[in-house]
Structure formats: structure tokens, C-alpha cells
Design brief:
It is a single chain. With 535 residues, this protein is an alpha/beta fold. It contains 20 helices and twelve strands.
């Protein structure tokens, strides 16, 4: 068994896993990275491997020629080098978008992956049976030979998983990663063809194919997903991120752009979305007579800092506050100040996973807001369970509460009932309110009844009520604050606020760390919302 075959299967093993990592990033701007898309991607990679193993075994028996094996891998490398150029129109044409039903997303993503990524995976998979056939000289050695080659291939797969995920994709980019690994495949295949060509100028001919990855990369446009008003785009460790200027406002969108994660319009306080209602929550978080200290509030999933900005603007002049945010994506956290009106120094933002950060914290809070979403519609399951809510409860100060942003098509949606039942398992007092936004509901869990007296005062007297001395406050009304907008907002939230029906909530699924089918319930909710819209 030659060293070349070991190196060859190592490179092809790495390339298969690199293709899977790169495919997930190419798909993200069009289909997202939900569990549905990942299941399709992994399943189709396995289909490609199966087809490649079958084809490679048959070709190796019919024509055990190393040059054929190298030619197949060279073709795979050339194909992958060109992949970013022709994949975009295919993916764009097949995308189901955020408003496509889960079935549409399943079928479209399956077809897109099949059309774009199956050929190179199948080609690379032919190498393993080919290499075993070429390296086996005696039957008695077949087991040892096969084991050594599979070990080399698996070692390559390990490298092909970690290097793109932790190095080349976040620090170089998906296009650069594809070009790099495509060039590696072409170079390795050209090496094999040169070895079989003997001496002379012909042995260098295969290396000319390295021009394809270089030229293809040079021909790529500078923007991954061109959209009108694009201000910023980046691929991060976690997602594909864009900041888009639309109608005078800056919008933060991720992956396929199915939802607005943050919004800011210069000169305008409110957004017209659920974040407006959250601006008033600090007035409810501490009862009168509480110790005179700054109110502590944290947003788990602060994104571009929209809620933190509103608290700083609306609540802080009247209620002394210490504001904190937790955001898992450091790139997104850095966008808050330049694009979303976040005042540097107004809040301490920690980069990390919300549950991990909270569990490690010894702080207590008057208000904990959970507004963390992955894949636009899905709250990360670890932030939906009774174990998590009990952890939040342990971090609440007297009179404090948890506020949760939930997307649901109706108050009786199974997803909403699941959250209500789970909150009731952790808190004695649970409230719900339909807030601004097409599908947004506010859920509140508290250890003590939440007094709505501040909301009533604001709804009746507007900013005059806010200007009255509150515990430790007395800042006065900002001259440019829209008092009527605050008054209307308080009246809307007051009219929508109600205790959760415990009897109805018992129909929901109890979400636990062991079983939290959040994606399934969310997908079903989207289908029902689309069906209702079409009636």
C-alpha cells in the first residue's frame, strides 16, 4: 500500500465533510439552518456516499486503474470550485422562504441539495472502494489494508469537520473554504495522475486544472446574497447575518431573512413591533415600597439591542436601571451601536449562550426578558423548558418577573399552550398578552402578582404619570419623547393583559430538557397560520 493512497483517502475524506459544512452555509441564506434543512443535508450526504461506494466498487473491479480514480476526484474538485457560481440561481429558484410551509421547505431543500451537492459527494465516495482494490495484493492482507485506509479517511473527515467549522468558514468565508478544498482535491488528483504519467512534460499537465479554483474564486461576486439596501453582511460562527436599509429603517436579518431580529429608524422611538410593549415592562417589575436601588434588567438574546435601547430611552429617565444583555453571536453584538442606535455604555452586553451565562451568574434581576431565536422562528429548546424557567426563577429579586416573546398564530395554538403549561410548572402567576407584531405574544411568569397600576396611570395621564416621583427616580420627561405614543402603548398593553387559563394550558405539552418538540410545534403553527391566511 503506497503512501499516496493513504494521503488520497485522507484528502477525500476531509473533502466530504467540508462539503457538508460548506453546504450548510450556502443553504442558510435561502433555506435557513433549521433541523429540517440539516436532516435533509445529512440524509443526502449519506445517499451520496452510498451511491459513490456502490459505483466505486463496480468501477474498481471492472477497471482497477489508479488514473481513473484520480480523474474522478479531479472532476469533483473542478465541480466544487465552480459550485458557488452556479448554485446561487438554483438555490434562489428553489427556496421556500420563511413563508413557505415546512413541507415546501423540505421538498425544496431536498431538491436543491440533490441537484447541487450530490454529484461531488458521490464522486469522492468512489475513492474508498477504489483505494482498497488498488492497495490489496493478497487476500490475507485485505482486512489490514481496508482498516488502514478507512482510518485515514476517517482522520481526514475529522479534519474536514473541524477546520471549516472553526477556522476557514468563520475567518475566511464559505467561498474561500470551497476554493481551498477544491484546489486541494485537484492538486492531490493531479499528483496521482502525474505519478502515472512517468517522466516528461505530460506529468505536469494535470496541475493546470488548479487554474479552475483560482479563476472561479476570482469570478465570484463580493456579496453572498445581494439585496436592495444592503449595509452589512457576514458569515459568523453561528449564522449568516445582514443589515439592510429598508423604508428609512435599519433591519437585522439572519440566514434566509424570515424575520426581523432588530430594527432602528433614526428619529423614531418605537418600532411598531413587539419590542415597543417590552419598553414598558420595567415600570411593572418592582412594587412600590421596594428598597431604593437601581432596577436590574437583562435581555437574553439581545441581538442588535432594540429592547435595551428602548429601555434606555423610555424607562431609564424615570426608573434608575442597570441594563444587561446576553447575545451568543459576537458579530451581531458589535452591530448594535453602529446600526441600531444602541448607546455605548448604556448596557453591559455579555457574549455567550443565554442559559449557560445565566446559570453561571450569581446576580438577581427584577426583569428577565427571553427574546432568543435561532432560525428566525424557533426559540432554542434549552430556553423553553421547565428546568430553564426554574433557573430563571432562582435569579429573580422580590417583585421581579420573567417575560418571554413567543410567536404563535392564536392564543390556543398548541405552541402557546405548551409554553403556558411549562411556565405554570415554574411560576404561580402567569400572564399573557397579544402585543404588536403579526404573531407575537408576551408571556410573563412571576412569583408574586404583577400590579398593573403603573400601566393604568400611564394610560390615563400619559407622561405626566411617569414624571411623578417614583422610588429613586425623578428624572423628568425627555422633551423629545412622544408622550401620546407612550400613552397609547400603555392602553394597548393594559387591554391585552390577562391571566393564563390554567385549565386550557393543561392541554399543552410540558416542555422539559428531555422532551421539548419546539421545532415541530412551531412548524405546525406556521402551517395553520398560512392556511388561515389563505381562507
Amino acid at each position: 500500500m503506497t503512501r499516496f493512497l493513504v494521503a488520497f483517502v485522507f484528502v477525500t475524506g476531509a473533502s466530504v465533510m467540508e462539503l457538508e459544512m460548506a453546504a450548510s452555509r450556502l443553504l442558510a441564506p435561502y433555506f435557513g439552518t433549521s433541523q429540517i434543512v440539516w436532516a435533509n443535508l445529512i440524509g443526502l450526504i449519506l445517499i451520496g456516499l452510498s451511491l459513490g461506494y456502490l459505483l466505486g466498487g463496480r468501477l474498481a473491479d471492472r477497471r482497477p486503474d489508479g488514473r481513473l480514480m484520480c480523474a474522478i476526484v479531479l472532476a469533483a474538485g473542478v465541480y466544487e470550485a465552480l459550485l458557488p457560481l452556479f448554485s446561487r440561481p438554483i438555490l434562489a429558484a428553489m427556496t421556500g422562504g420563511w413563508f413557505g410551509t415546512p413541507v415546501t421547505v423540505i421538498l425544496a431543500s431536498f431538491a436543491a441539495i440533490l441537484a447541487v451537492f450530490l454529484p461531488p459527494v458521490a464522486a469522492l465516495a468512489t475513492v474508498s472502494p477504489f483505494a482498497i482494490r488498488l492497495a490489496t495484493r493478497e487476500v490475507e492482507q485485505s482486512g489490514r489494508v481496508a482498516g488502514a485506509l478507512y482510518a485515514a479517511s476517517t482522520a481526514g473527515s475529522i479534519l474536514g469537520t473541524f477546520v471549516p467549522a472553526f477556522l476557514t468558514i468563520p475567518f475566511l468565508g464559505t467561498r474561500e473554504t470551497i476554493a481551498l478544498f477544491a484546489a486541494l482535491q485537484v492538486a492531490t488528483a493531479a499528483w496521482g495522475l502525474a505519478l502515472g504519467a512517468g517522466r516528461g512534460p505530460r506529468r505536469f499537465g494535470p496541475f493546470l486544472w488548479l487554474l479552475v479554483p483560482a479563476l472561479a474564486y476570482g469570478a465570484l461576486p463580493g456579496v453572498t446574497k445581494p439585496v436592495p439596501g444592503l449595509l452589512f453582511e457576514a458569515e459568523t460562527f453561528y449564522q449568516y447575518v445582514q443589515v439592510v436599509r429598508q423604508g428609512g429603517a435599519n433591519l437585522l436579518v439572519v440566514n434566509e431573512g424570515g424575520g426581523i431580529q432588530s430594527i432602528y429608524e433614526p428619529g423614531r422611538d418605537f418600532t411598531g413591533l413587539y419590542t415597543d410593549d417590552y419598553a414598558l415592562l420595567p415600570f411593572l417589575a418592582r412594587p412600590r415600597g421596594a428598597p431604593a436601588r437601581p432596577e436590574r434588567a437583562v435581555v437574553l438574546g439581545s441581538a442588535g439591542g432594540t429592547i435595551l435601547r428602548l429601555w434606555d430611552r423610555i424607562a431609564r429617565p424615570f426608573v434608575p436601571m442597570e441594563l444587561e444583555g446576553v447575545e451568543i453571536d459576537p458579530v451581531v453584538a458589535r452591530l448594535a451601536a453602529p446600526y441600531f442606535g444602541f448607546r455605548p455604555g448604556s448596557a453591559a452586553v455579555t457574549v455567550g449562550d443565554a442559559r449557560v451565562v445565566l446559570d453561571r451568574s450569581r446576580e438577581t434581576y427584577d426583569l428577565v426578558v427571553v427574546d432568543a431565536y435561532s432560525h428566525q422562528l424557533y426559540i432554542p429548546f434549552q430556553l423553553t423548558t421547565v428546568e430553564f424557567f426554574r433557573s430563571v426563577r432562582a435569579h429573580l429579586a422580590p417583585g421581579g418577573f420573567l417575560a418571554l416573546n413567543v410567536n404563535a398564530s392564536s392564543p390556543e395554538d398548541p405552541l402557546m399552550l405548551a409554553f403556558e403549561r411549562t411556565l405554570l410548572a415554574a411560576f404561580p402567576h402567569v400572564y399573557v398578552a397579544k402585543v404588536r407584531g403579526p404573531l407575537n405574544f408576551l408571556l410573563v411568569g412571576a412569583l408574586e402578582p404583577v400590579s398593573l397600576a403603573p400601566l393604568r396611570a400611564i394610560a390615563e395621564d400619559g407622561l405626566a404619570a411617569l414624571a411623578r416621583p417614583l422610588e429613586g427616580a425623578g428624572a423628568g420627561v425627555p422633551a423629545d419623547l412622544d408622550g401620546e405614543a407612550v400613552r397609547d402603548l400603555a392602553a394597548e398593553l393594559l387591554s391585552a393583559w390577562r391571566p393564563v387559563d390554567a385549565g386550557l394550558a393543561r392541554r399543552g405539552v410540558l416542555l422539559t430538557d428531555d422532551r421539548a418538540p419546539v421545532e415541530y410545534l412551531t412548524n405546525a403553527m406556521v402551517v395553520r397560520a398560512i392556511e388561515e391566511a389563505l381562507r
